[in-house]
TrEMBL record:
<dbReference type="InterPro" id="IPR043134">
    <property type="entry name" value="GTP-CH-I_N"/>
</dbReference>
<comment type="similarity">
    <text>Belongs to the GTP cyclohydrolase I family.</text>
</comment>
<dbReference type="GO" id="GO:0008270">
    <property type="term" value="F:zinc ion binding"/>
</dbReference>
<dbReference type="GO" id="GO:0005525">
    <property type="term" value="F:GTP binding"/>
</dbReference>
<keyword id="KW-0862">Zinc</keyword>
<protein>
    <recommendedName>
        <fullName>GTP cyclohydrolase 1</fullName>
        <ecNumber>3.5.4.16</ecNumber>
    </recommendedName>
</protein>
<dbReference type="InterPro" id="IPR001474">
    <property type="entry name" value="GTP_CycHdrlase_I"/>
</dbReference>
<keyword id="KW-0554">One-carbon metabolism</keyword>
<dbReference type="GO" id="GO:0006729">
    <property type="term" value="P:tetrahydrobiopterin biosynthetic process"/>
</dbReference>
<dbReference type="GO" id="GO:0046654">
    <property type="term" value="P:tetrahydrofolate biosynthetic process"/>
</dbReference>
<keyword id="KW-0378">Hydrolase</keyword>
<keyword id="KW-0547">Nucleotide-binding</keyword>
<feature type="domain" description="GTP cyclohydrolase I">
    <location>
        <begin position="8"/>
        <end position="186"/>
    </location>
</feature>
<dbReference type="InterPro" id="IPR018234">
    <property type="entry name" value="GTP_CycHdrlase_I_CS"/>
</dbReference>
<comment type="pathway">
    <text>Cofactor biosynthesis; 7,8-dihydroneopterin triphosphate biosynthesis; 7,8-dihydroneopterin triphosphate from GTP: step 1/1.</text>
</comment>
<comment type="subunit">
    <text>Homopolymer.</text>
</comment>
<keyword id="KW-0342">GTP-binding</keyword>
Length: 187
């Protein structure tokens, strides 16, 4: 990923000056460079395609639920550039023995989350990537997150969670299967 550290540092200095701070004071002097390095890390998913994690598949005669729960993630709200964070739950039912490594589900979530983002888009993008690459019977993705744009500003409601879901294939068609996966997620 090509991040222009110099532009970010200049922008951070401008923001600091604009809010009445002195970017040359001791506590802030290295802040522009730290922010540039942080942005490179937290936006490292911009050029990543989550589907790449599903290029390697394994043959396993398993056509029942595969669920990875409580995958922690951090992202940045594209409306305010403040963090939101939470957990993702990713489930799929393999078809024709096509399974992927469990860590690949978590890596796909991370790749999509590491860009200016909306929670709804993360949920849909992960579900669509799995459907396209693994061709399972169905995919269900649920994300629960706290948004700092609602916690530290605006309505100031700390602890409130936003839940989004994406159901594909038989999870979209069959309410009983959706309820089953929700029960497994909720534990």
């Amino acid at each position: 990923m090509s991040v222009n550290h110099e532009q970010i540092k200049e922008a951070v200095k401008l923001i600091l000056t604009s809010i009445g701070e002195n970017p040359e004071r001791e506590g802030l002097i290295d802040t522009p460079a730290r922010v540039a390095r942080m942005y490179e890390e937290v936006f490292s998913g911009i050029e990543q395609d989550p589907k790449e994690y599903f290029d390697v598949v394994f043959s396993e005669e398993h056509e029942e639920v595969v669920l990875v729960k409580d995958i922690p993630f951090y992202s940045m709200c594209e409306h305010h550039l403040v963090p939101f964070f939470g957990v993702a739950h990713v489930a799929y039912i393999p078809r024709n023995g096509r399974v992927t490594g469990l860590s690949k589900l978590a890596r796909a979530v991370e790749a999509v989350a590491r860009r200016p983002q909306l929670q709804e888009r993360i949920t849909d993008t992960v579900a669509d990537a799995i459907m396209e690459k693994l061709e399972p019977y169905g995919v269900f993705v649920m994300i629960e997150a706290e948004h700092m744009c609602m916690t530290m500003r605006g309505v100031k409601k700390p602890g409130s969670k936003t839940v989004t879901t994406a159901a594909r294939g038989i999870y979209r068609e069959d309410a009983l299967l959706r309820n089953e996966i929700l029960q497994l997620i909720r534990g």
